[in-house]
């Protein structure tokens, strides 16, 4: 079974969310920032911060001129702050080596700091309208269900080829198809409660097969009490400080488990998110 492009695109034309990074005036740099922010983070949390970033750093060179600490503070609580550091590094490379522009070629995009397979293709597709497969968890789920009649398994090297085979031949149509496929997975063909009654596709192999359950046992990610939460608390202290702070300030930010706090602090240092001064104080990257 394939996916009816006409039905999918008709639905998308009528119901697509009015997201700011989809606006005609959004540049490739703006779209790149949105793609980095949206990784494992919902739209409702990303949009206000993205708008602030576009106003503050409209081109890569503007971000490159800011410090790592400024970018980390502006990242706020989006989570996974290493993404912010990598984007700052990417901005510097774009400003110095690519004329302050985001390249359109997938291979060149892949050579940039912090740009992986998904992000490179997303920028090529959504910013430059190229006919390239863009595969995230939403797309994988729609393709697995609608085409193969099953829940998605673990990510595979086949995913790109299978998705590319579904793309319409006309390039502009293919790029919009990719966006529509992702939208369908995000809003209708969701992981836990798919709303099949709202699905625009006239046929779905998964529905025809009786909606078989997934054979993959997925771990539920928790946050409360994790090293990740501890890291966030320590970063909060440094983001709120005007300069380096004493170790005791960090100790008070996470008192439930000193060993876990020490691990979190060490990992922040290793990741380059924070640094220690010669006199033993701690600061955000670039402020030590």
State the total count of DSSP E strands: 2
H-E string: HHHHHHHHHHHHHHHEE
What is the typical, i.e. mean, pLDDT? 95
Briefly note the structural class of the backbone: mainly alpha
Characterization of this structure:
This protein is mainly alpha-helical. Helices cover 53% and strands 2% of the residues. Helix 1 (5-15) packs across helix 11 (171-187). It holds the Pfam family HhH-GPD. InterPro entries: DNA_glycosylase (IPR011257), Endonuclease3_FeS-loop_motif (IPR003651), HhH-GPD_domain (IPR003265), HhH_base_excis_C (IPR023170), MIG/MutY (IPR044298). Keywords: DNA damage, DNA repair, Glycosidase, Hydrolase, Iron, Iron-sulfur, Metal-binding.
Quick structural summary:
The chain has helices spanning 5-15, 28-38, 43-56, 60-64, 68-75, 82-97, 106-110, 117-126, 137-148, 158-164, 171-187, 205-208, 227-239, 247-253, 258-270; strands at residues 274-276, 282-284. The protein is an all-alpha fold and 288 residues long. It is globular and about 65 Å long.
């Amino acid at each position: 079974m394939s996916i009816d492009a006409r039905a999918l695109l008709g639905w998308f034309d009528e119901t697509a969310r009015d997201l700011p990074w989809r606006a005609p005036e959004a540049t490739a740099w703006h779209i790149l920032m949105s793609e980095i922010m949206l990784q494992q983070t919902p739209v409702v949390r990303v949009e206000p911060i993205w708008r602030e970033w576009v106003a503050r750093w409209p081109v890569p060179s503007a971000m490159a001129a800011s410090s790592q600490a400024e970018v980390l503070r502006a990242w706020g609580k989006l989570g996974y702050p290493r993404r912010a550091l990598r984007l700052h590094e990417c901005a510097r490379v774009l400003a110095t080596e690519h004329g302050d522009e985001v390249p359109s070629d997938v291979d060149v995009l892949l050579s940039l700091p912090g740009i992986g397979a998904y992000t490179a293709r997303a920028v090529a597709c959504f910013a430059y309208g190229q006919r390239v497969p863009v595969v995230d968890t939403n797309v994988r789920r729609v393709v697995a269900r609608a085409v193969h009649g099953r829940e998605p398994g673990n990510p595979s090297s086949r995913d790109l080829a299978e998705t590319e085979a579904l793309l319409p031949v006309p390039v502009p149509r293919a790029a919009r198809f990719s966006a529509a496929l992702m939208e369908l997975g995000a809003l209708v063909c969701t992981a836990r409660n798919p709303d099949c009654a709202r699905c625009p596709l006239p046929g779905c192999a998964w529905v025809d097969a009786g909606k078989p359950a997934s054979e993959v046992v997925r771990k539920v990610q928790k946050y409360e009490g994790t090293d990740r939460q501890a890291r966030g608390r320590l970063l909060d202290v440094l983001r709120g400080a005007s300069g380096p702070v004493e170790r005791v300030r960090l100790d008070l930010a996470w008192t439930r488990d000193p060993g876990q706090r020490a691990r979190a602090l060490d990992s922040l240092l290793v990741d380059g998110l924070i640094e220690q001064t010669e006199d033993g104080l701690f600061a955000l990257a670039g402020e030590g």
